[in-house]
Amino acid sequence: MRDTNGQLGKAYLKDYIVRATPLLKEFLEKEKTEAINDKLGDIPLKLIETYSQLVSEGKGIRGALIELAYKACGGTDLERVLHASIFIELFHTAILIHDDFMDRDPFRRGIPAVHKTFEGIGKSLKVKIPADHYGNAVAVCIGDTGFYYSWKVLLDSGFAPAVILDAGKIYADYISRLGLGQALDLSITGAAKVSEEEALKVLLLKSAEYTAILPMKIGAALAGEEDIKRITAIENYAKCFGWAFQIQDDILGLFAKEEELGKPVGSDLREGKNTLLMIRLRKLGNQAQLEFQQKVLGNQDATVADVERMKNILKDSGTYQHVLDLGWKYTQEGTSYIPQVTSDKKIQEILESTIYYMMERTK
Amino acid sequence: MRDTNGQLGKAYLKDYIVRATPLLKEFLEKEKTEAINDKLGDIPLKLIETYSQLVSEGKGIRGALIELAYKACGGTDLERVLHASIFIELFHTAILIHDDFMDRDPFRRGIPAVHKTFEGIGKSLKVKIPADHYGNAVAVCIGDTGFYYSWKVLLDSGFAPAVILDAGKIYADYISRLGLGQALDLSITGAAKVSEEEALKVLLLKSAEYTAILPMKIGAALAGEEDIKRITAIENYAKCFGWAFQIQDDILGLFAKEEELGKPVGSDLREGKNTLLMIRLRKLGNQAQLEFQQKVLGNQDATVADVERMKNILKDSGTYQHVLDLGWKYTQEGTSYIPQVTSDKKIQEILESTIYYMMERTK
Questions:
Q1: What are φ and ψ of residue B160, in 5° steps?
Q2: What's the CATH code, domain B7-360?
Q3: How far apart are CA B70 and CA B224, in angstroms?
C-alpha cells in the first residue's frame, strides 16, 4: 500500500468533465432541436432531456482515458480528440439506462432511473400498456438512440477516415462482447451456483475491458498509433486500471455513504451481483458466513441490518482486506507499465495519479 | 390500378436472400466461435443461435435495396456490396427483437419471440429475477449486441474508408431518429386521443425512412454517388416504396392468413397500433364504427370475431379500398422516378417490379 494521493488524477477528471460537458450539452441540444423540427412530440423530447441530464452527471473516466491515451501516443489535435472522446460518454449513459432497466435499479446518480421516471409519465399519460412496461420500453428506446448518437459523434469527429474506421472497429468489437457479457451477468446474478470463472469473466468484460482498455485503445487509434509495444503497454496499464476501478466500485457499493453513492448502499448485494467481494468470500468465509451470504445475496428484501452484517463478515473473514490489497496490487502493477506507455513526464504523472485515484475515490 | 406483377421483384428478393444468408450465417458462426473461445458460457451462445435463426428468416428487403441502389448508381464491386449489405439485416433483426419485447409480441416469423424463448429458459435456470423480466432483459442484450455486429460488418466491408464513413453517418443519423420514433409509437399506441400528425410521423420514421430511404441512400453512398439529382430521385422512389411496403404490411396484419403472417392476425389491432387503416377509419367511419374501433383498438382481449368485425368495418366504410388505392398510388408514383434513378434497363425493370411486389405480396 502506497502513501500517495490521486489528487492530480482527480483534478484531471474534473477538468475533463468541465471541458466535455458543454460539448455533450451542445450535441444533445442540437438533437433536441432536430426532434422539435421533426415534430416528434413531447415524449422523445423529454427522453432526450432526461438523457442529457444523466450524461452530464457522469464521472468522465472513459472519455478522459481516450484523451490521455491519445496524448500519450503523441497526438496533438487536442480540440478534435476532446470532441471525439464524448462519444464514449454518450454510449456509457445509454448502456447505463439499459442496465438500470435490466437490474431493476430504481436510482442512478442520485435521481430516479430513466425507466422509473417514465413509468410515472406512462401513468399520467394513461397509456394502455402497463406503466412499468412502458417505462422499461421507452428507456430501451432512448438507450438505443444514445448508441447511435455516439456513432454520430465518432464518425463526425473530423479525424482522417481511416483513423475513424480503426477506432470504430475497436468500438464495435468490444461492445458486441459487452452485450453478451451483460447477458451472462443476468444469467448468473442470483443463481444458486456460480462458477468463479464465469463471474470473473463478467467483471473482466464489464470493467477492465469496457472501462479502460476500450477507451485507451481508441485514444491510441485516433493518434494513429501503430507501435505494437506501446499499444500492449497501454492495454496492460488499462487492464490494471479497469480492475482497480471495479474493485473500488464493488467496495463503495457496500462501504460508501449513500449520499455519495447516488443509490442505496447494498444495491449490488440485493441484486445478487457477483462482485469480487462476493466471489472471494466464497473462498475465505466459514460455513456460517457462507450460509448468510447464500441467504442475503440476491435477496431484494435484505435489510439495512443484513447489509451491516455482510460488511462485518467481509471484514472478519479477511475478504475486505484481501480484495482491497488486490486493488492496490493492480494499481502498482498498472503504474509499472507507464514508462512504456509514454516518455512524457507530465502524462506519466497524470496516468499514475489517475489509477491511484481509482482506489482512493469515495464515490 | 395496374395489371402488372411483381414476379421479377419477388425473384430478386429471393435470390438476394439465397446469396446473403450464407454470409450472415458465416459471420454469426464466427462470432459464436469467438464467444466459445471467450468462455462466455451457454446463455450468450444460445442468444447468438436464436438471433442467427431469426436473421436467416428475414425477407431481405432492406439488404436488397442497398444492393439495388448501389447497382443503380453504377457500382461494380458486387461481391463487396453484398457483404456490406448484410449489416442492415443484422440491424433489422436486432431492432425487431427490441420491438417484440416493447410490443409484448409473443411471436415473430412463426416462432416464439426471443424474449418469450428466454423467459422459458429463465424459468428452467431458476434465476432469482422474475422469468419474464429475465427474458426481456437478455432479449435487449442480444439486440444491443446485434447493433454492434451490424457496425462490425459495415466497417469491415472493405470499401474506401471515406465511403464507409459516409454510409455510417447516414446509418447513425436515421437510426437515432428511429429510436425516438419508436418511443413516440409506444406513447401513442392505445392512447385515447391520437393526433393524425403524430401517427403519420411514426409510420414515416418506421416505414418509409427506415425500410427504404436509409438502405437506398447507403447503397448510393457505397457507390460513391455524389449527383444530387440522382440521390433525390432515389429518395423519392424509396419514400414511395416505403409507404407501399407499410400499407401492405398494415393490410396483411388484418387480412393475411395466420400461417403466412407468422403471428396472430389482428396483433396490430390488439396492440393498439395506429396503422394507416386505423388512422383513415377515424375519418371515414360512422359513429357506430368509430365506437367499435375505440373499443377494440388496443384491447388485448379482442376476439377473433372482433377482428372479423373490424375487417368488415374497414371494407364497409371504404377505408380498406381507400388505403389500398393509396398504396397503388405510391407504387405508381415511385415508378415514375425510376428513369431518373438509373438508365440501366435491367435495373429499371427490377426496381419497378420490386415496388409492385411490395403491394402484391401475401406475406
A1: -60, 140
A2: 1.10.600.10
A3: 9
Judge whether residue A245 has pLDDT over 90: yes
Report the predicted TM-score, pTM, of the whole model to 2 decimal places.
0.96
Cβ contact A6:A353 at 8 Å: yes
Judge: A41–B198 Cβ closer than 8 Å, yes or no. Answer: yes
B145, B184, B298 ranked by CB distance to A41: nearest: B184
More confident residue, A3 or A16: A16
pLDDT at A334 over 70: yes
Q: Report the mean per-residue pLDDT for chain B.
A: 94
Q: What's the gap in Å between the CA of A357 and the closest CA on chain B?
A: 30
Which whole-number Å values give the CA distances from B229 to B234, B332, B345, in the listed order?
Answer: 9, 20, 19
- The reported pLDDT for the residue numbered B4 is 61
Mutate to test the interface with B, among A157, A187, A210, A299 (most CBs of B within 10 A): A187
Q: What is the ipTM of this complex?
A: 0.96
Size of interface A-B (CB pairs under 8 A): 214
Which residues, at least 6 apart from A304, have a Cβ–Cβ distance to it below 8 Å?
A: A266
Tens digits of residue pLDDT in A53-86? 999 888 999 999 999 999 999 999 999 999 999 9
Q: Where would I find the beta strands (DSSP E) of chain B? A: 107-108, 111-112
Q: Which amino acid is at B327?
A: G
**B269, β-bridge pairs:** none
Domain ranges of chain B: 7-360
Mean pLDDT for the stretch of residues A155-173: 98
Tell me which chain B residue has its CA closest to the CA of residue A158. Answer: B165
Pairwise CA distance, residues A31 & A292, whole Å? 50
Phi and psi (nearest 5°) for A117? Answer: -55, -45
